[in-house]
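Exercise 4. Each item below gives a protein and its sequence. For each, produce the structure-token representation.

Item: USP domain-containing protein (Pisolithus microcarpus 441).
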Amino acid sequence: MLITDEAKEAENVKLLTEMMGDHSDREVARRVLRKYEGDVEKAATAMLEGERGDDDQSHQLWSSVSQMDVVSHKQPSVPSIVRPNTPVVDLTGDDDRDLQRAMKESMSTLQQPAPVFGPSERPADPNWAMVLSNQEGNHEANYLQNLERAIEASLEHSNANDSDALEPFPIEQQLRRDGCPVVLRPSIHTMCYAAAILQGLFYVPQVRERMASWRPTVMSGMLEVNVPTSGPDFTLWALSEIFTHMDLARLCDLNVDKHLCAFNIEPWTSLTNPLGELSRKFYTRLVATLEKAFVDQFVLDGSPPPNSRLFHFLYGDSAGDRAEVLQETSVVPIDINPGGGGSDANDLIGRLSAQLSKPQDAPEKQSVIVEPSEVVAFQLSKPSASYLNNTSTSAAAKPFVYPRSIYLDQFLKQNVAFAEAKRRQQHETFSNVQKLILHKKSMTHFNGKDTLKDLRSTIYYYEHVADDKGDPERTSSIKKTTEKLKSILEAVESEIKVTDQMIHKMREEALTLLDCPELKQVRYDLRVVFMHDGLYGRKHLYCYVRDKGQWWKIADSLIEQVTEESVLRDTTGLHLGAGPYLLLYSRYRPDENERLTSLPWPREIEDDVKECNKAFLAQLPPDLVKDIKEEHMPSSQNSTFSLSAQLTDPERRNDGMDVS
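Answer:
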């Protein structure tokens, strides 16, 4: 067995992470260093080439979450049998007492309990520990400690009567004022996560605008069309009703129970059902239905479809001037806890870049986006057991960082050559940084010793300890030696300072190489952040949405304005391995507020909203509504639908949102 010098390894890991910059991962550095048997230079070169130290690295970049590798846990090795120490007995003598003592010791040995196979119960000897006893800790102990912490947090909420029953707002608080957004509140708490996604899609401008223009399928020659009751049109009609009410209703909370049957929702029954995976499945099915319906509408109308994709972007492996293995997806899985913890680069662009880096076994290929979409969803996933097995404390845990805007230009097929040239330049810069760091180490360390520390100690000795014994010549020698040593120290410290400045400058240049005007054309803005605090129930889910330039926090029983900083830096659920689990970005549009001012919703649904508003306002105290005037809501102007067919319902019920 190879016994690792933990102190030296920790020093080398620190050196490696300094070479790689702030974006490096300490666990990755440790694995790569061990793979190359402690050779820092080889490990640094390998990391610059994309090495992560894994035995089997997967290079499927846009892989579905359902196809993610299952983390295998190594079985504990059976410890060797440790026989009890017995005193040495001299059997060469003739003394009967020695013979009797020998037989006694032999019998006591035979009476020892049978060996037990399994982990030793002896306290760990820190001198032979593979990791320092005050670091990392025992994984089983951390598992139980974190599990106990999660149970206690859950019991605290349960004991506080944290019911999942729908608690209606007082009617006076339901009035929508000052541009307040709308919260969708189903009575069935297992459907809340799906309602949150429907609610979030409304605040994606491209989706809202496309939904306002959609109409049910009208076959040629038909004069009347019934309200859809099945199929994709049923789903889109239900979503159209929800969106119209969210845009025009006077209520700030809407019950959507009777509309959810149109969406085939898998219930969220407990924490054993991963919320992120349920949301991904629901979102994927829904947007696939929406995209097909939008394309079909253009085909039936005889008009050309829009130039850009809405939800699904096309990607493939780029080989030269062509792209191979073209596929499409609407959700990009992002590992927010790579390597099982301890990541120093836990941000969206960093993870995305890591997933899109060239595989070492096929450097001529690189995954690229061939046709971008208007909307991109990122599922933030982590291994299911990573929280309970996490050995770090909650204070040391780092939240996942996602920016207000991202640029995907460097991942587009047409920019492959340019972006790759920038990455090569970045690689060369980091290689030079590596050389400077090694040069700095050569000035400060030799044979594992801190030479600067020794030099300062020597100077202190000559200044404060050395005895000249009253000898003028010795006094002069001590003074000259002290001055010479100080001169050497000053020169070394000066060179170290210059080296540090060069390292900092080169790192800054390397990190901004891809931040250039040529790669900042395709901008995506953050629209919705879905959050989970780590516990089960409707009150433990909420989302942030951006509407008309303002961020809002929407929870089950709370709607409030928040700052952008609070949206981007929310650490809720971090101690329970939760937090943000789904992000929605869409293409930047400078005129989006103007385009969303007056949308052509179906006239039939607008009429329902008017009736619901009247019924709701009639229930409010007169002094609360005396200054409220029902605005004129524009009728649908979609002539293709309105003039060619009239929507009818045999029962013609008022089936707007529930205002009771």
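Check: The chain has a mean pLDDT of 76.
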